[in-house]
Design a protein that fits this description.
Layout (H helix, E strand, L loop, with lengths): L3 H8 L4 E4 L6 H12 L6 E4 L5 E2 L2 E2 L13 E4 L3 H13 L4 E4 L9 H17 L2 E3 L5 E4 L4 E4 L8 E8 L2 H13 L4 E6 L8 H8 L7 E6 L5 H13 L3 E6 L4 H11 L6 H11 L2 E3 L2 H14 L7 E5 L2 H13 L9 H10 L10 E2 L3 H4 L2 H11 L6 E5 L14 H13 L4 E5 L7 H9 L5 E3 L1 H21 L18 H10 L8 E3 L2 H11 L3 E5 L13 E5 L4 H15 L8 E5 L5 E10 L3 E8 L4 H4 L2 E5 L4 H9 L18 H17 L4 E12 L2 E4 L2 E5 L3 E3 L5 E3 L1
Parallel strand pairs: 1-2, 1-5, 5-6, 6-7, 10-11, 10-12, 12-13, 13-14, 15-16, 15-17, 17-18, 18-19
Antiparallel strand pairs: 3-4, 8-9, 8-11, 20-23, 21-22, 21-23, 24-25, 24-27, 25-26, 27-28, 27-29, 30-31
């Protein structure tokens, strides 16, 4: 159990013990140097039982010998001595420890065992343990650089950075500095043996200095806590931007060897992130730029992007970038156009993107007027102001400071949040920051592509954040029989839940089959009924288009084929149902994820689902609006609009049916492994299940010999 007091000691310590401090250790040299430079020398204690002096200072043989309270201890000793170091730190009052050394879960079973022993010890001592395999953290807001990386950030900002990789974290913090993204925290988590990303996220959400969180992760160790923290962040309007490794099989293997992490099904992760309002990106640059934008703008209330630039070429480029990113650059209202036109030269044009032309070089106030007008337009949610900035650190005054000042005034007068954007990627150094600070410009994004794509991510997050902040409501469980289900059993459940199913007769002889076929007055479908056979068509258990006079013979053929293919399967007759004309076929399925619970999948294709590979996923629960998003997001969504003479699907009715399937799955409780309707036939407003499958989780039981068996 990780307590709030332990996390406070970890993130906001007042005193430090470096256990295993050594002049030969790069970790020790960097950590001590960072703390010393930040003014923490008197509260930083060096512990080394073998060397009386380290880093030019006297050492203590133990933490207890310090005689002063210790908040945070750094364990830099070999694995064999780590447990004793933690006991010593706890005895000195430490509520948090960081294990910097490697050689634990990432090395295999023996290392994992050593790691588990450390966790058990830390829990028994009520100490929050970070790591192992960790490089420390920086609380930039509080001025605490407790990190073994050089050049810790000192300019506090609104983005908290959490990284599972220590080495990558060095590149991340450096890029953040170059890109003008100011950080509130930099935290490495290593193996997450005890304190996880989820713990940190849940803690940082409550920090007023944190306005967005950027996370590099390989695995989500505590899904339930992570989801809870993400929903709280959504309610508070704080964006979470995640770069998660493991999309490819190769990356998944690399993650496992790095920290012993198992990355999970990536498509499920995508679905969960979308549900929680987490922004997912693929590069370090996108992660930090997007987090920086989100920390500056917060929720963007309208999707429209207003663009103001002194370069017509930049306006053209941004228009193309916006189209590629599916970002909206709306037309300005008549009132806005008229207001801008009053200040524009005769050769200028008042539209969006807005080129203020070279006239803004002479009439500096044109910048301010244009930004204010565009930013107050009713269709604009964010303003992009494109202009140059200095990049050389030569100490010379910037010739364009007056333009930056005018831009800053316009941004302050704009109702919509505004961002300063350079035309190309360039470093935002100390002198550039001074230029922006003097002009009261809140944030800069280097590069137009980075800006447009980051803003669009924040726009989409803003539209989703209200839904993402809702906690799921409990459902009333449905009391039903457990055990293996046949299609007949599955049909009964679906009908009970209000899901329409195709009419059918359950028959147990050739004669009954013939009678049933005659009642349906036309060709029929015949399917074997067996709880032991999931994929009936593969073994001759399904026959379609059977004529009435052939039903009896087909009954015997179907039963014989399945008995031969599956000798041990229990066969319970045949299901006879009327054939339906060709229509759109879909799969609606719910599967249990070990980490995230029940996950809904909708897909086009029926029996061709695997071939088409066109599915959309979402964790349960879902409502009709969410289902509509899933359906319209399919690559083959145009099929639902009607093709080759078929009517367009009644999406309202289809969404109702899909929601009913999802609610049934929730009500079936924790024993449900999967529930599948495949195919679900859709023809205009006609929506009905043609087949259903229910699979329960395997239960453990004691057999007659006292052995554990699966039932």
């Amino acid at each position: 159990m990780v307590s709030r007091e332990g996390l406070d000691a970890l993130l906001s310590p007042r005193s430090f013990a470096l256990i295993g401090a050594s002049d030969k250790s790069t970790f020790s040299l960097l950590l001590h140097g960072n703390l010393d430079a930040a003014g923490h020398r008197e509260r930083t204690y060096l512990v080394n039982s073998r060397s009386p002096e380290v880093h030019g200072r006297a050492t203590y043989p133990s933490c207890v010998a310090i005689g002063q309270p210790v908040d945070l201890a750094f364990v830099m000793v070999p694995a064999a001595r780590a447990a004793d170091a933690i006991r010593d730190a706890a005895a000195a009052g430490a509520r948090a420890v960081m294990v910097l050394s490697s050689g634990y879960a990432e090395t295999g079973p023996e290392g994992r065992a050593r790691q588990d022993e450390l966790v058990a010890l830390a829990e028994s001592l009520e100490v929050a343990m970070m790591g192992p395999n960790v490089l420390g953290l920086v609380n930039v807001t509080a001025g605490i650089p407790a990190m073994t990386l050089s050049d810790p950030p000192t300019e506090p900002g609104g983005v908290a950075l959490i990284s599972q990789s220590g080495a990558s974290c060095g590149a991340m913090k450096d890029f953040a500095s170059m890109a003008g993204v100011d950080l509130s925290h930099v935290i490495t988590v290593g193996n997450e043996a005890m304190v996880t990303v989820a713990h940190l996220l849940d803690h940082l959400v409550d920090d007023d200095s944190v306005r967005a969180v950027a996370i590099f992760m390989e695995a989500i160790r505590e899904p339930e806590l992570f989801a809870h923290a993400a929903r709280r962040a959504a309610r508070l309007g704080k964006a979470i931007v995640v770069l998660k490794a493991g999309r490819s099989e190769l990356a998944a293997r690399a993650a496992a060897s790095h920290t012993g992490a198992l990355v999970g099904d990536d498509r499920v992760i995508d679905a969960v992130f979308a549900d929680l309002g987490v922004i997912r990106v693929d590069t370090i640059e996108d992660m930090l730029v997007t987090a920086g934008v989100a920390a500056t703008t917060g929720r963007i209330e309208r999707p429209g992007m207003g663009v103001v630039s002194i370069s017509g070429g930049a306006c053209d480029i941004i228009a193309d970038l916006a189209e590629a990113a599916a970002a909206e650059i709306p037309e300005l209202s008549a009132a806005t156009t008229a207001a801008v036109a009053k200040k524009m030269p005769a050769f200028g044009h008042a539209h969006n993107p807005l080129d203020v032309t070279g006239a803004a070089i002479v009439d500096v106030d044109l910048w301010e007027h244009a930004i204010e007008a565009v930013g107050n337009d009713e269709s604009v949610g964010c303003v992009v102001v494109v202009n140059s900035l200095p990049w050389r650190e030569d100490g010379r005054p910037f010739y364009g400071q007056k333009y930056v000042d005018a831009i800053g005034r316009g941004m302050k007068a704009s109702a919509a949040p505004a961002l300063y954007v350079t035309q190309v990627m360039q470093p935002i150094g100390r002198e550039t920051r001074e230029v922006l600070r003097a002009g009261n410009v809140p944030h800069v994004v280097p590069g137009m592509r980075a800006a447009v794509e980051a803003i669009q991510r924040v726009v989409l997050w803003s539209a989703n954040v209200a839904r993402a902040g809702r906690e799921p409501e409990p459902v009333e469980p449905l009391e039903v029989r457990r055990g293996r289900y046949s299609e007949v059993d599955a049909r009964a459940l679906l009908e009970q839940a209000g899901v329409p199913v195709v009419p059918a007769a359950h028959v147990h002889s050739a004669a009954e089959a013939a009678e049933a076929a005659a009642r349906f007055d036309g060709p029929v479908a015949m399917k074997i009924v067996s709880a032991d056979i999931a994929h009936k068509s593969d073994i001759g258990g399904v026959r379609l288009g059977v004529a009435v006079d052939a039903a009896a013979v087909v009954y015997d053929e179907v039963v014989a084929a399945c008995a031969a293919a599956e000798p041990g399967a229990a066969l319970d007759g045949v299901l006879v149902s009327p054939m339906r004309p060709p229509a759109t076929e879909m799969l609606v399925g719910v599967t249990r994820s070990e980490e995230w619970g029940l996950v809904l999948a909708v897909a086009l294709g029926g029996v061709l689902v695997e071939v088409l590979d066109d599915a959309a996923l979402a964790p349960l629960p879902v409502d009709e609006a969410r289902v509509r998003e899933l359906l319209t997001g399919l690559r083959g969504a145009a099929v639902l609009q009607g093709v080759r003479g078929r009517p367009a699907a009644d999406l309202d009715r289809l969404c109702q049916v899909v929601v009913a399937v999802g609610r049934l799955a929730e009500r079936l409780g924790d024993d449900l492994d999967s529930l599948e309707v495949n195919p679900l036939r859709v023809h205009g407003s006609e929506v009905e299940a043609l087949d259903g499958l229910v699979v329960w989780c395997k239960e453990r039981a004691i057999d007659a010999h006292g052995l554990l068996t699966s039932t």
